[in-house]
Structures are given as structure tokens and as C-alpha cells.
Specification:
By secondary structure, the chain is of the alpha+beta class. It has a single domain (about 5-130), classed as Nuclear Transport Factor 2, Chain: A (Roll). The chain is about 30% helix and about 45% strand. It is built from 3 helices and 6 strands. The protein has helices at about 5-25, 25-35, 55-65, and strands at about 40-45, 50, 70-80, 85-100, 100-115, 120-130. It has a 6-stranded mixed β-sheet. The longest helix has 18 residues, at about 5-25. It is globular.
């Protein structure tokens, strides 16, 4: 008999769907992981706050149009659930291919999900750039 999925497992699966959609560069997949209301918010590394599903969706569409390939490896994943709200903090190791080359970056991200009838839906993604260890100096 298979084990029942824990709430933490379900939240981690929703977080995985977000990163799968990101790597696929598929807007329909990205749309499926987000709540579609005016309260959602997104902060990409070094960018301003996006509020509401339309702004968030438009930015993902532009990101996907400009990238040829994205690969994301996660580390230091931390999951927490309180009632119908869950969040995942993690470090993203991102490699992006563009028409004119590659970009490697490390980002600290927090993804906030709300549990509803459709399961866990993303309501906030906040990502902050981390210093590149290859370019940092110790003093």
C-alpha cells in the first residue's frame, strides 16, 4: 500500500513544478503553478516588485522569450507550513543560455504558496542575487 503524501511532500512537489516550468521556458506550465489574482507578487534578482498576476505573467513571458535554455539546481532547501500557507527557502544555482552567451548565477529565493481547492499555488516568488564565489575576494 503506497504511503499517503504528507503536506510537506505536496508543498515540495508544487515547488518542483515551479522550477520545472522555469526550466521548460513554457508559459502555460508557469501559469499552472501561480494563483491568478491581484495579490500575487514577484521579485526577480535586481528587479523591481511586480504586483498582480498580469504583471508577473508578462515578466515571465519576456524572460522566456529572451532565454534559449535555463538549468536550475537547488540546494539548502527549507520547507515550512502554517495552516494553508507554506513557504520554501532555497538557493538556486542558475545557468542561462542566451543568443550571445551564458550566464551563471546563484540566487537566494523564497517561494510562498497558498493551499486551495487546486492544491498549492504560488503567490510570491522573491529572489535575491548572491555573490559569485569565483569573483569574491577575502580580505
Amino acid at each position: 500500500m503506497p504511503q499517503k503524501q504528507t503536506p510537506e511532500d505536496a508543498l515540495q512537489a508544487a515547488n518542483t513544478r515551479f522550477y520545472t516550468a522555469f526550466e521548460s521556458l513554457d508559459l502555460a506550465q508557469m501559469e499552472a503553478v501561480w494563483a491568478h489574482d491581484e495579490e500575487v507578487q514577484c521579485v526577480h534578482p535586481g528587479w523591481e516588485l511586480l504586483l498582480g498576476w498580469e504583471e508577473v505573467r508578462d515578466r515571465w513571458a519576456r524572460l522566456f522569450a529572451n532565454a534559449r535554455r535555463v538549468r536550475i539546481a537547488l540546494s539548502s532547501v527549507w520547507v515550512r507550513i502554517e495552516g494553508h500557507v507554506g513557504w520554501v527557502a532555497c538557493t538556486e544555482h542558475i545557468t542561462t543560455a542566451f543568443a550571445d552567451g551564458f550566464d551563471d548565477s546563484m540566487v537566494q529565493a523564497t517561494n510562498i504558496f497558498v493551499l486551495g481547492e487546486q492544491g498549492w499555488l504560488l503567490v510570491a516568488h522573491h529572489a535575491s542575487p548572491l555573490p559569485n564565489p569565483a569573483h569574491s575576494t577575502v580580505q
